[in-house]
Write a structure and sequence with these properties.
The complex is a heterodimer of chains A (about 80) and B (about 240). Chain A has one domain: Ubiquitin-like (UB roll) (Roll), CATH 3.10.20. Chain A has a 5-stranded mixed sheet with strand order 2-1-5-3-4. The N and C termini of chain A lie far apart (about 40 Å). By secondary structure, chain A is of the alpha+beta class. In chain A, about 20% of the residues lie in helices and about 25% in strands. Chain B is an alpha/beta fold. Chain B is built from 9 helices and 8 strands. In chain B, strand 7 and strand 8 form a beta hairpin. In chain B, helix 4 packs across helix 9. Classes of the chains: A alpha+beta (about 80), B alpha/beta (about 240).
Chain lengths: ~80, ~240
């Protein structure tokens, strides 16, 4: 099934759009979804384990299951400089 | 005299005379006096927050100067907290300003937050931000996270018990890099301005906007409306790991 993913920050520039559709299987987690995103956009590889993923507006763990109809957003990692 | 100073600001309907009076009674603690913290301190003192304390354990370095409009070459080697205190006192004598040359640790943070209405994040360290988050949630003190990196800034106002906390949005701290964080020089001023707007809203009893992202190179502005994480170890389970 296809999941619609909304992108924020530089991910919009990398993808050239603010929304992408990623293929997932039943039982896939947010980690699988992030992996699919990184595979499609290799420029995001350095963020792989730090991408902030929200499911239905809640930033949650990578092991959370994804289901059809979920509202998913991907955001670059928390920035730390001051 | 005081009314004359803030006359143009009080004409702003979002603030007004009532809001200006509210600000005059508030106490803000700024943790970190670098690019973000020094700009935020200047803004909040100019705008008339009643008491502003700024804490930093470092000295001004040459590498700080590109991203601050407060320090100058003659300040290099001087204690940031005291340089800022002197500078801020000259800006607005109606504001009580105190520079604190001290490290913020789990042993000191609780006492530092005594009678503080709001914390402004000017740190450059994620572990310290998680410590601030734990203390702020535990003591129900609002705070405004802000960070800068490269051309990207993030800001999120946090109203404990009401809005998501820092651990709600990022439960694992990315490993600290060994290299210095790149920061475009004009970015902290802009992000500090956004941060101070969120601070003002919290001080006036309003809700913050959400997670704000700004890329100063692309001129992209985004706001994510996020919800509290029901399994957040900090604000939901009250496990204050960093405290």
């Amino acid at each position: 099934m296809k999941i619609t993913v909304r992108l924020y920050g530089r991910y919009k520039d990398i993808a050239g759009t603010d929304t992408v559709h990623l293929d997932i299987k039943k039982g896939d987690t947010l980690r699988d979804l992030v992996n699919a995103f990184v595979k499609r956009f290799p420029e995001t590889e350095k963020d792989k384990n730090k991408i902030m993923v929200a499911k239905n507006k809640i930033f949650t763990g990578y092991e959370t299951l994804v289901s059809e109809g979920d509202d998913i957003t991907l955001t670059p990692p928390v920035v730390s400089g001051g | 005299m005081i009314n004359e100073r803030y006359r143009r600001q009080m004409l702003v309907s979002e603030l007004g005379e009532r809001g200006q009076d509210v600000l005059a009674g508030k106490h803000v603690l700024i943790i970190g006096g670098g690019g973000l913290g020094s700009h935020s301190a200047s803004i909040l003192v100019r705008m008339g927050v009643g008491r502003v304390d700024i804490i930093d354990d470092d000295v001004v370095e040459l590498t700080n100067l590109h991203r601050t409009s407060i320090f100058s070459e003659e300040d290099v080697g001087r204690t940031k907290a005291y340089v800022l205190e002197n500078y801020l006192k000259k800006i607005n004598a109606n504001v009580s300003v105190k520079g604190i040359h001290q490290q913020v640790t789990k042993d000191t943070i609780i006492s530092l937050l005594n009678h503080v209405d709001l914390i402004v994040d000017g740190t450059d360290s994620l572990p310290l931000r998680y410590l601030i988050n734990d203390a702020a949630v535990k003591l129900t003190v609002p705070w405004v996270y802000a960070g800068v990196q490269g051309t990207m800034g993030m800001v999120m106002g946090i109203l404990p018990q009401k809005t998501p906390c820092l651990q709600c949005i990022s439960q694992t701290i990315p490993e600290a890099g060994t290299s210095e964080t790149p920061v475009l020089g004009n970015l902290p001023a802009l992000i500090a301005a956004i941060q101070c707007t969120e601070a003002l809203k919290l001080l006036l009893g309003q809700r913050p906007a959400g997670l704000i992202l700004y890329d100063i190179w692309k001129q992209h502005f985004d706001i994510l409306m996020v919800k509290k994480n029901p399994s957040c170890p900090c604000c939901k389970k009250h496990k204050f790991t960093y405290l």
